Amino acid sequence: MTQKIIKPSLDSVWDYPQPHTLEIQVKADDIDGLLHTNNTVYIGWCEQVAWNHSASLGLDLEHYQALNRAMAITHCEYDYLQASREGDRLIAGTWIVEWDKRLSMRRRFQIIRLDDGATLLRGDVQFVCIALDTGRPKRLPPEFISGYGAAVLDRSD
Q1: Rg (Cα) of the chain, in Å, rounded?
Q2: φ/ψ of residue 54, rounded to 5
Q3: Of residues 140 and 5, which shows the higher confidence score?
Q4: 107: domain CATH number?
C-alpha cells in the first residue's frame, strides 16, 4: 500500500493574503556551528524576497539609481521561531503592510518550511525614502507611489 503524503496548504499559514514569494533550499554554506541555518542567512533571504518584490513592481536597483531614490531600513525586528537545516525547502513571503504615501513604508516577512508548513521566521521592517546622493530623507517620487502603491495591503488614507 502506498502512503499518500498530504502537505499543508500554504494559504492557511500565511499571516497575510497573497504574499510575494521566493522559494529557497537551505545549502551547506547556510549552516553554522550549531548545525542549523545561521540567523544572518534568514535576513539575507528577507532582503532577496524584498528586492525580488520591488523588481516585480518595476522598481529594481537600476530604477532606484535613475531616480536618485531608495528605500532605506530605519528599524527591523526578526522573530526566529524554529530552526531549518541543510536540504530543507523553504518559502519566503513578503508584504508591504503600511505606508504614508510621502516618506515611509513597512514590510512584513514570513519564512515557512514547505514540508510541514511551520513558520520559521517573522520579520517587520520599516523603511524611509532617501536621496541616494545625500542619504537624507526625501519624498517618494511618483514612480514609487505608483509601483509600491499597488502592492500595499492597507490602502486606507
Answers
A1: 17
A2: -60, -45
A3: 140
A4: 3.10.129.10
